[in-house]
Structure formats: structure tokens, C-alpha cells
Amino acid sequence: MSTNPTVEEAGRAVADPAAYADEARLHEALTLLRREDPVHWVEAPGYNPFWAITRHADVMEVERNNTLFVNAPRPLLSTAELDALRAAQRARGPELRTLIHMDDPQHRVVRAIGADWFRPRAMRALEPRVRELAKRYVDRMVEYGGACDFVTQVAVHYPLYVILSLLGLPESDFPRMLKLTQELFGSSDEEMRRGESASEQMAALLDFFAYFRALTESRRAAPTDDLASAIANARVDGEPLSDVDTASYYVIIATAGHDTTSATIAGGLHALIGHPGQLDRLRDDPGLLPTAVEEMIRWVTPVKEFMRTATADTRIGGVPIAEGEAVLLSYPSANRDEDVFDDPFRFDVGRDPNRHLAFGFGVHFCLGAALARMETRAFFAELLPRLGSIELAGAPELTATTFVGGLKHLPIRYTLT
């Protein structure tokens, strides 16, 4: 897409993984859509058509009306080829059904299985361990001798260790979980993906299923005091979850539970490097850390979109939406909406209020939001008092994606005690 895109070009950028690896291009497109056509019909090559919803108020309206706009059958933007593959799988039998695929009443019941593990009481109990791990990974930065690729050597490992420890998985399996997550979320990125075809992308998911099927059998045979055991032995209406639903629950916890947080931590550090005045402000006033974390989350917006399907004829922002038509909720766009955020392209560690939608809204609000906030806060609380200087040591690189992503490389030089 060239500079000064047409509205149609801007709409197609929403479905282009390469656009999310070029933030200037992406936000030029989204800004144009918010201004000229905030509920825009997109016909992009290789995709089934959809409406792109780009304003904060309209995204919230769709999220709020979770019976009018449902997750099934198209909860995420994927190619027409992958849509067809999944439809064929549904016809043959059970398919992946994570919380992001489910609608009420099933969503409410299944969500409750893991909810207690992410409530404030559980977070308070987990906080000492999170702080310990934050110190471990800042210490590791010292061991690297003042230079590292912050993403690959630090950011992806710290939240991975937290969430997989919560699940109760052995540390020897962590590298495998990281690779499978990167293949799943990076299926549009040449560096991350397993292969180009839809069947190769599905293979990464099937590998997850095989791993978690074995884990389920183990935890049912010998229950333990961890989240994996709680999921494996959960019952709904007196019956255990099916193997598919159990594996699906593990997949969403093990993947979204760390990849989004690592993107926030890496993107937050990049923002501080690029805005040295804000870095100084935060170091001088650590009391700003809670608002700084919220601003990092808004700035990065690791989850780029979810899809919903209209169950009846309706309107969004005055635009008619027909029953059965799909809408894409653009969170990066909502989080830069000029009608909601004062100077939205300014990174401000003291931004308050900050009504970002990076965790979603309504019944599908992110289950792990409190954990993500705590991990990010703990990491920067450990890093900033020990940081002498920091600068880029090369060009940062973003993942090509339309779903979850952020920086995949962040080379930095620093002094650290």
C-alpha cells in the first residue's frame, strides 16, 4: 500500500499480515478508515469478506451485544482456505473450541473452570514467584554483558515460565511450547511459521493437541495441585470435558497466556527507548508504573482482532449489517481513536484515564488480564532502578500477523547493575 491510500486499500490492509509488521502503514490505514468509513466492507484477496469495525465506540457496542454478535463460526480472521478446512473438520467431528470460539451459555460455564486461578487472591499468592522470575530475567540481561536481542533472549521466556509453571508443566517442555506457540500465532510470518499451506498450519495445532491429550490422561490418573489438573478434572453438568475441549482450554492458556505479555513487555521497552523523556519520567516517579503498564498495553495492543457474526439484521454506526455477515473488531484502531484518547499517538506513561480495549470488553474480557498486568509491572519494577543507559543496537522487527503479535526482534545495548 502506498502513501495516501484509498479507503479500499486501507480496508485490505486490515487483512494483510505484512501491514502489522509495518506500524506506520497500518496506522495510516486505520486512521483513514476511522475518519472516512469506520464500518467498512472489506473484500481482500484470499479472504471471505467482512466488515472492519475501527472506532472505539462501535467495537464496544459489538462486544457488549454478545447475543446479537456471536463468535461462531468465525471467531478469528483467517484465509478462505483455512475457513474451509475448519468447516470440513466441523463436519467430521469435534474441532478446536477455546474460550474465544465459544458463546454463552457454554462460554460462561467453561470460563469458570479456570477463573479462580486468575482472581485477585490467586494473583497475590503468585506475586512473589512472579517477582522472583522478573529478577531472574533482569539478572540474565546482566549476564549477557550489555547487549542482547531482548525479545528472543528475555521477553519471550519470562511470561512463558510464569504461565507454564502455573499450569504445572515440566521446564524441559518449555522450549517445545514456545516453538508451537510461535508457529501457531506466527503462521503468516516467514520466520515463525511451520509452512505456507493451511494444512501445515493446522499441523502445529494438532501437535498441541497430542501433547495436551497426554497431559490430560496424566492429570486424571494422578491429580496434582496445578491449573492443568483443575482443567483435566473439571466437570460441566456432572460430566468431564471432552478431550477436544480439555486440549482447547490448555491451548488458549498456554499460548495467549504468555505470547501477549511478552509482546507487551518488549513493545513497552521499545516505547521507552523511543521516548527517553517518558523513560526518565517513569524512573524519577516509580508511582507511575501502573499507568505506564496500561499505556504499554494500549500502545502495543498484542491482540489485533477478533471476529463476530451477526445473528440478525442490525446496524453499527448507522451502517446496515445483515444476518450472517462477519465483523472484524480492530483493537489497534480502537486504541488510537481520536474521539477517546487525547493525542492517541503520544506515548504517555501517566495517561489517565486510559480506556483501552486491548483486553477486550464484556463477557469475553481477557481471563488473564490481571496476570499480564502483574508480570509487566514486576518486570519493569525490577529493571528500571538497575538501568543505567539503553539504546537500540539494530532495527526492531515486528511479526507479520493478523491475530496476535508484536516485536520478534529488539536488539539493544545497555548498562545494568
TrEMBL record:
Pfam families listed in its UniProt record: p450
Keyword Transmembrane helix: no
Keyword set includes Oxidoreductase: yes
Entry keyword set: Heme, Iron, Metal-binding, Monooxygenase, Oxidoreductase
SUPFAM superfamilies in alphabetical order: Cytochrome P450
InterPro entries linked to this entry: Cyt_P450, Cyt_P450_B, Cyt_P450_CS, Cyt_P450_sf
Similarity section: Belongs to the cytochrome P450 family.
Protein name as it appears in the record: Cytochrome P450
Organism of this sequence: Streptosporangium fragile
The organism's taxonomic lineage, starting at the top: Bacteria, Bacillati, Actinomycetota, Actinomycetes, Streptosporangiales
